[in-house]
Predict the structure.
Amino acid sequence: MQVLLADEYGFCFGVERAVQMVEDALAEGGTVRTLGPLIHNSQEIGRLEAHGVATIDAPIEASADMTEVIRAHGVTPEVQRELEARAAKVVDATCPFVTKVQKLAERAAEQGRDVVVIGNPDHPEMIGVKGYAPHNAHVVRDAGEVAALPPLHAPLVVSQTTIKLSTFLEAAEAVRAKADAEPQIVNTICSATRDRQDAARALAGQVEAFYIIGGRHSSNSIKLLSVCQEQCAKSFLIETPQEINPADVAGVERVGVTAGASTPNWLIKEVVERLRAIGDMRQQAEPIAV
Ligand code: SF4
């Protein structure tokens, strides 16, 4: 049985960087804490916990003997200041793509302009960005929600890094109708999610079974599953190699593997090894033709 990996899979740039920053902080010694779980993958969180990295839920829990790590989604400037006042050290692992959105919003607000951010207002990334333009930013999900906004002054339009391009373009167009001047439209969508979906789609038509490794509650892993299911009926979302049922790949010659943006490489390697072992066992069990 051939095990084929998609061209793009697993940790995105921002998540890989955040995990590395935690590792570096651990290497320096002392107590390391993250504000909220570092990533949406319980196996990787478990691995970090085994090295002593725990999570705090609010800046008030930080103390002078801790190194505090800010997650890739970023936080408001207020939260960052509070962490800096309480913790021994703050490591800012905000993804540079998110920092760009924060800085654009901050600059436009300083110029007295409205800021329209297309995204989910409840998502931590959006809460952080809004904090950079607290009196000027409107976080809206789509064009329909733009229609409910008041008239907008010289607006900047940016996006949550993980939304669909069509949603952003439609909403940006709706902003134009509300603005008193030509809006500044900056597409700040990160390509990591789309790249993983495109690579999974390209492979799904060539395999008879597909394993997507990722958290059951990770939205980008669930989306990867639905992309694979469009072309490969035997597509499975798994969190660990133990969830692979050999019966599901009985008779399968080519199996595909991909992973969500929060899935660590060590876990992907374990899944690939288990699939190869299942293939080897099957070969040994096959009767020898005479
Ligand atoms: S998905 Fe993109 S923006 Fe988000 S952490 Fe990964 S690289 Fe950064």
